[in-house]
Design brief:
The protein has 4 domains: 1-70 and 232-315, Rossmann fold; 80-177, Alpha-Beta Complex (Glutamyl-tRNA Synthetase, domain 3), CATH 3.90.800.10; 320-360; 370-441, Orthogonal Bundle (Arc Repressor Mutant, subunit A), CATH 1.10.10. By secondary structure, the chain is of the alpha/beta class. The protein has 20 helices and 12 strands. The strands form 5 sheets. The chain has a 3-stranded parallel β-sheet with strand order 1-2-3. A 3-stranded antiparallel β-sheet has the order 4-5-8. α7 packs across α8 (208-220) and α16 (370-379) packs antiparallel against α20. It binds glutamic acid. Glutamic acid is lined by residues 9-11, 43, 185, 189, 203, 207.
């Protein structure tokens, strides 16, 4: 498979959520896996619903995910091409003018349904004489344009669903252009895919019937059809429809919640496949192990709590180099030693701030067993507070007080951190510093 070219084609009418990000990711991984090209296409022909803010947000989210694109285009800059393509189809007898209003169309549909017939457009537009069209236009009506489907079976080998066949007799001729001259996605997308040299169209299974009509459009425009792959949609952990909850599963919310982009990628690249989810700490590893062929037809179950679980697994394995800049940006100026001391206790990288504050800013100690903490303050060995100090120090406190185990360690933890749980104290001593350690053991805010 040489020169693979795929595209992610979001409409900038909302934020990316896990559902559409998954489509983007699958395209991105497919391109990278095959040494191909990943295109960002902005489907912004719906002027009312599209916004520059959403477009910027989509770009930010993709960049944050590390999913850079190789080239881009936008539909609003290609309107002339869509007009040309429509003219070509009209010329070839594959597109025709229709004059019904939405109300008239809905009446037709109702009549068909009550007569027990499928609500397929009756091609009335096709039967209009030039005279009748002229009259309608003189009455102020403007045509919308439909694609004349071939009454044939359309079949393709889907990269996800296997062999798919659709008979077009139960489909209405799709509208390509509205009466106000605005192009419909069905046409625009095919013209783009042809002009951009897209080799594989990978999108959600909600586009399957679209694809059947679009395959005829590719042919009518004299082009070969790209390979198609329709990935199953996402459902909640219990199989419930996710659409209502997608707002809370938007990428910016996950980002604010401290979920690592590579964790989202690890999960979204595997749900819907038979393979287990393996948290990876680098996107390169997600690319390496990606295989579109492993995606199944069954609805993919997405469980947000799995993201949180995977996130802490990954955070606990991240190297200092992976997080150094982010820590510094959030005011955590600790070194690798600090990171290694706390990472095992974190659910998100951001939580390192909590422990940095505990080590470096005043807190009010909790004094639970003064006998233990007083002895500890008196017995703290001189010299460097390296990790090795901990064991000789606690042994000497035990010898002095006769207290061992939890009864010894918990009062130390409470006095030094103000909390009853957290990372091992030994490597934190040096970061706190001798003065602070002693003052906290004496019950002073320090
Ligand atoms: N803008 C379309 C959508 O958001 C793109 C579909 C496609 O990939 O062709 O559904």
């Amino acid at each position: 498979m040489s020169s693979v070219k795929v595209r992610f084609a979001p409409s900038p009418t909302g934020r990316l959520h896990v559902g559409n990000l998954r489509t983007a990711l699958v395209n991105y991984l497919f391109a990278r896996k095959h040494g191909g090209s990943f295109m960002l296409r902005i489907d912004d022909t719906d002027e009312e619903r599209s916004s520059a803010e959403f477009e910027t947000a989509i770009r930010d989210d993709l960049n944050w995910m590390g999913m850079g694109w190789d080239c881009e285009d936008r539909q609003s800059s290609r309107l002339k091409r869509y007009d040309e393509a429509l003219a070509q189809l009209v010329q070839a007898g594959r597109a025709y003018a229709c004059y019904e209003t939405p109300d008239e169309l809905s009446l037709k549909r109702k009549a068909q349904l009550s007569a027990g017939r499928p609500p397929v457009y009756d091609r009335a537009g096709l039967k209009l004489t030039d005279q009748e069209k002229a009259k309608l236009e003189a009455d102020g009506r403007r045509p919308h344009w439909r694609f004349l489907l071939n009454d044939a079976e359309v079949s393709w080998h889907d990269m996800v669903r296997g062999d798919v066949a659709y008979h077009m007799s139960s489909s209405s001729d799709p509208v390509l252009m509205r009466e106000d001259g605005r192009v419909i996605y069905t046409l625009a997308s095919v013209v783009d895919d042809i002009d951009h040299g897209i080799t594989h169209i990978i999108r959600g299974e909600d586009h399957v019937t679209n694809s059947a009509a679009q395959i005829q459009l590719f042919e009518a425009l004299g082009s070969s059809t790209p390979m198609m792959g329709h990935v199953a949609l996402l459902a909640g952990a219990g199989g419930e429809n996710l659409s209502k909850r997608l707002g809370s599963l938007s990428i910016d919310v996950l980002r604010q919640d401290g979920i690592e982009p590579v964790v989202i990628a690890s999960l979204l690249a595997r749900i819907g496949t038979a393979d287990p989810v393996v948290p990876q700490s680098q996107l390169a590893a997600v690319i390496d192990s990606f295989d579109l062929g492993k995606f199944g037809r069954a609805t993919a179950k997405f469980d947000p709590s799995e993201l949180i679980k995977l996130n802490s697994q990954i955070v606990q394995e991240l190297d200092f180099a992976d997080v150094e800049t982010r820590l510094a940006d959030s005011g955590v100026t600790g070194d690798a030693q600090f990171w290694l001391a706390v990472r095992g206790n974190l659910a998100t990288v951001d939580e390192a701030r909590v422990w940095w504050k505990i080590c470096t800013q005043p807190l009010t100690p909790v004094i639970d067993a003064p006998m233990v903490t007083n002895a500890a303050a008196a017995l703290l060995p001189a010299g460097d507070l390296n990790s090795a100090v901990w064991s000789s120090w606690t042994k000497s406190i035990a010898a002095e007080t006769g207290v061992k185990g939890k009864g010894l360690f918990m009062p130390l933890r409470l006095a030094l951190t103000g909390r009853d749980a957290g990372p091992e104290i030994a490597p934190l001593l040096a970061i706190m510093g001798r003065k602070r350690v002693i003052r906290r053991l004496q019950g002073d805010t320090a």
